[in-house]
Design brief:
With 163 residues, this protein is an alpha+beta fold. The chain is 48% helix and 19% strand. Strands 1-2-3-4 form a 4-stranded antiparallel sheet. β1 (9-19) and β2 (25-35) form a beta hairpin. α1 (39-51) packs across α3 (75-86) and α4 packs across α6 (130-146). The two termini are 34 Å apart.
Length: 163
Amino acid sequence: MTVVLASVAFWAPVTYRLIGDDGKPEIVQGRARYQRLKTSERRALDRRLRANHLTPDVRAGIRAQLDAPDSKFTARERREIEADLAAEPINDEQFLQALLVDWDFKDKTGAVISYTPAMCAQLCEEWDGFEAALARGYMDAQKSLNDPKEQEKNSEAPSGTGS
């Protein structure tokens, strides 16, 4: 039996900052719709994101700790670490190909910028840092889910009538 608790995707705010005239920042705000991941998919994504930080030196250090005769890792910890070491890093383009399903952005004239994978690729090429802003939108949404201060800030104010 399948239980539906939420939609298969969710919207999150995205802020893209770029250098405007006279060096003043221009801010483009919109929102992006990201695929909601299953637990196993999110864990695999988390592994790939952690793999981005595993330089060859860090990998060698971790491997040395695993292989040390006095290693105190449990079998479960060892499996998790091995899986992290085996994970392929993910870049922003791959991240967006896997998660981004739509967006709500307008150009300077107010015209809607329709989402297509081709338009996404074009804007990510033309607007340096846009790809990272889209990825950051997802990360910020995930962070706010687990951060009580963010939850409080983003929750609705209580009704003045009590109902």
